[in-house]
Amino acid sequence: xxxxxxxxxxxxxxxxxxxAELHLHIEGTLEAELILELAARNGITLPFPTLETLSAQxxxxxxxxxxxxxxxxxxxxxxxxxxxxxxxxxxxxxxxxGVRHAEIMFDPQAHLVRGxxxxxxxNGIASALASSEADFGITTALxxxxxxxxxxxxxxxxxxxxxxxxxxxxxxxxxxAEVGNPPSKFIRLYxxxxxxxxxxxxxxxxxxxxxxxxxxxxxxxxxxxxxxxxAVEDKFLVQRLVxxxxxLTVCPLSNVRLRAVDxxxxxxxxxMIDAGLNVCVNxxxxxxxxxxVGANFAALVAEFGWDGATVEKLARNSIRSxxxxxxxxxxxxxxxxAWSASQT
Length: 344
Ligand code: ADE
Ligand code: ZN
Description:
The chain is an alpha/beta fold. The protein has a single domain (19-342), classed as Metal-dependent hydrolases (TIM Barrel, Alpha-Beta Barrel). The chain is 50% helix and 12% strand. The chain has 18 helices and eight strands. An eight-stranded parallel beta sheet has the order 1-2-3-4-5-6-7-8. The radius of gyration is 19 Å and the shape is globular. 48% of the residues are buried. Residues 25, 28, 63, 70, 175-176, 203, 206, 254, 284-285 line the site of adenine. Adenine binds at residues 25, 28, 63, 70, 175-176, 203, 206, 254, 284-285.
């Protein structure tokens, strides 16, 4: 029942649906209001110094047009407190979206290039995550994402520094401009991360072709694909992803705002669910794309008229595909079963 136009689900129930968020860039949670507040706090003059002028920049034509603003806005992140405040603001909003476990990416190279020390970003984010369970009831994990439009040697150097400082990361990811920067560029990086016992994910098939998804699996050994929507263009790849139940962390509102798809109605997610792919719903960069994971679910339900069983399945996929400990997954699956029982 993925396309029934007359099925309904109560918005409050949707917000209470217990879920894991597995594809989230913490720098992409920086709301325009907080950008201006941090700019004032740090004495930084932004090119768009008012809410009105800044908000007018949030129209994107593709991934690169978004990345330009995303990196420019990071200029306001200077101190550990800035990183901690950004992270806490995300956790507060994620809780309102029903997120109970979050795996959070950050872009260390994007801060180093601005002269911000690795320890400032890591310690600031980690300090907010340390009290996340107590403050917000959200368990968390941190993933260092590397910029694929930078050389592999830069990523390797930063990974070594993260390992040397015993940064509390559970894995690595690969993000930024996809086309022209294929997985094959980062084989040594992923080998090093695997040898260090880290979990492996990568963006693939957002704007890039299905072959990037295949290469991320074959050449990098990733356990999860971020996005993966263009996999639907290759039926043999779909068969493999279904057979192996490779998790795909889909971000519907992001895909619409970055024009990876024309409209939400044209998004391949219903088709992906019907094919038996292991998909879940995520927000990517919620401050830029029209909302958090709850807003993504709400838009999908409004568009496709999904019933409780469909959203429950997506939430179950997110919990099962997470890197949370088995006991935590069981706890969240029990919560999900209780949610389901409350719907009947
Ligand atoms: N960095 C932040 N958001 C991203 C996205 N959607 N794709 C690639 N890199 C990103
Ligand atoms: Zn992303």
